[in-house]
Amino acid sequence: MGYKINTGEKGIKILIPNFLTIVKIKTNTPNVYDTKPLFMLTEEENQIYRDKSDDRITFFKYKLSNFKVGNVFDASQTDMPLDEIEEQLNPVLDDPSADGIADTFIKTIYKDGFKVRYEDIESGAKGYCDVKDNVIVLRKDLSNLMKLKVLVHEYAHGLAHQHLKDDGKDYHIHRNKYETEAESIAYVVSKYLGLDTSNYSLTYLYSWSKEKDFKEIDDSFSTIVNYSKKIIENYKKMYEENLGLYSDYYQELKINI
Fold it and tell me: Of 49, 99, 186, 255, which residue is least crowded by CB atoms under 10 Å?
């Protein structure tokens, strides 16, 4: 990536497993083979091995041979701009209008059967959704806009991924898919609300979906669209009840005027 190790830094010694690729070589005795590390093949043997129509020398297995000492370096031992990287990976999202919107969103979430709780999350995660107990947990120290973004993200998990209630293993197998869906929904809803979370969401989405092909991402589009619409509609209904033209507050204000 173009970064360099600082002058005078000493490497951190680690043990590196040394794997050897092993091939098997046919002998004159049926079902009896010799084995040899791939790097020890002669040029003639290499030609036989690369010829897919010739089965005299074929791939056998990977075998752990030994360990050797190697060097690694910590990021702090390089000229990487760590503060800038940290800011890009974990930007401080802030927007004064997010406070009022978050309050309405929490009411929306409660009406949908979920509870919201604030905790000191030791893992460093910004939040999580307990689909079994319908509880959304947020980290206490989040900025107002980040709190709202995480709230919508976990709400999206709660609505779109209810099937994981009975199959937690599926989440771990397809975690990239579910995280991409939830963050995409959070991004769409935030854009609808006029809040910009792109500094965080785009990096997050890339990290979870970079290994996926277009077919896999396309399979998630209907989930993203349908639940983005559902969350927006739920929010709009709650907004009208609490702050819209038909709320008790505005009706009382109109009568007084």
Answer: 255
Give the separation between CA 209 and CA 178, rounded to whole angstroms: 10
Tokens 């930007």 found at:
91
Report whether 98 contacts 88 (CB < 8 A): no
List, in sequence order, the alpha helices (H) in the chain.
Answer: 43-50, 82-89, 98-111, 144-160, 168-173, 175-192, 198-209, 214-242, 248-256
CA dihedral 75, 76, 78, 83 (to 10 degrees): 90
Tokens representing residue 218 in the block: 């396309």
DSSP string for 159-208: HHTGGGGG-HHHHHHTHHHHHHHHHHHHHHHHHHTT---HHHHHHHHHHH
pLDDT tens-digit profile of 169-205? 777 787 888 888 888 888 888 888 877 656 555 555 5
Residue 127 near residue 138, CB atoms below 8 Å: yes
Extract the tokens encoding 177.
């898919």
Mean pLDDT of the chain: 79
Alpha carbon 231 to its chain's center: 21
98: left (phi over 0), alpha (psi -120 to 50) or beta: alpha
Q: What is the rounded CA–CA span in Å between residue 117 and residue 115? A: 7
Smallest CA-to-CA distance from 177 within 117, 218, 145 is with: 218
> What is the C-alpha to C-alpha distance for residues 150 and 98, in angstroms, rounded to an integer?
12
Inter-residue contact 138 to 128 (CB < 8 Å): no
Q: What is the mean pLDDT of residues 4-9?
A: 94
**Distance (Å, whole) CA 229 – CA 242:** 20
